[in-house]
Design a protein that fits this description.
The complex is a heterodimer. Chain A is mainly β. Helix content of chain A is 0%, strand content 56%. In chain A, strand 7 and strand 8 form a beta hairpin. Chain B starts with a strand and ends with a strand. The chains are: A mainly beta, B mainly beta. Chains A and B meet through strand 5 and strand 9 of A and strand 6, strand 10 and strand 11 of B.
């Protein structure tokens, strides 16, 4: 199994809603990532987890709250989002190490904030 | 901080022809890796090819090859025998391994393969 599975594929939410994005991988990867991608732009790193601990928070607003409950799952909890947060949210995973391991990406969740 | 520059926002190529996408980067690191990722309309990022900076030999993967010029900090992608399925956004990426893999993406080149 070399897949990273993200759910839901599409999400529409109001600015007062609370929702969660989910990401799952069964490749034994101990690093997991959240990226945000606006249309026609490259992905921007939001968070990195290694060994289920938060390693990087790229100054992301607190209305985005990541969670890594175990080595296979990564969640992104959303609360009080703004319309400018509408974007494609990509999850990725990789091996840990210093050998330039490739990132495996999910298909993303297209989020629209109304 | 690393920067990755792709100077060609859009390109087109006739089916079966060859096309080269350009990428330059700036870094003071000695140990790093370079990648090309493809993002088709399905939006999933797919690895095309990987280059280890300490290797002089250019990486190849079937119809895809790179021209890695370390001193010039240049990393171009050549696609031979272009196919309609190659239509996608292509991102050049710089990776510094830190245990986890910290990736900096370029701005992307949108490639259209014309039948």
């Amino acid at each position: 199994d070399t897949e990273v599975t993200q759910t839901p594929k599409h999400l529409v939410m109001g600015m007062t809603n609370k929702k969660s994005l989910k990401c799952e991988q069964h490749m034994g990867h101990r690093a997991m990532y959240w990226y945000k991608q606006k249309a026609k732009k490259p992905p921007e790193l939001m968070f990195v987890y290694s060994y289920e601990k938060l390693s990087i928070n790229e100054s992301v607003p607190s209305r985005f709250s990541p969670e890594c409950p175990n080595s296979s799952l990564l969640n992104l909890h959303l609360h009080a989002l703004q319309p400018e947060d509408s974007a494609l949210y990509l999850c990725a995973s990789s091996q840990l190490g210093d050998r330039g391991e490739k990132l495996f990406f999910g298909s993303g969740t297209q989020l629209s904030v109304l | 901080a690393q920067t990755v520059t792709q100077s060609q926002p859009e390109m087109s190529v006739q089916e079966a022809e060859t096309v080269t996408l350009s990428c330059t980067y700036d870094t003071s690191e000695s140990n790093y890796y370079l990648f090309w990722y493809k993002q088709p309309p399905s939006r999933q990022m797919i690895l095309v090819i990987r280059q280890e900076a300490y290797k002089q030999q250019n990486a190849t993967e079937n119809r895809f090859s790179v021209n890695f010029q370390k001193a010039a900090k240049s990393f171009s992608l050549k696609i031979s025998d272009s196919q309609l399925g190659d239509t996608a956004m292509y991102f050049c990426a710089f990776m510094k391994p830190l245990g986890y893999q910290k990736v900096t993406f370029g701005t992307g080149t949108k490639l259209q393969v014309i039948p």
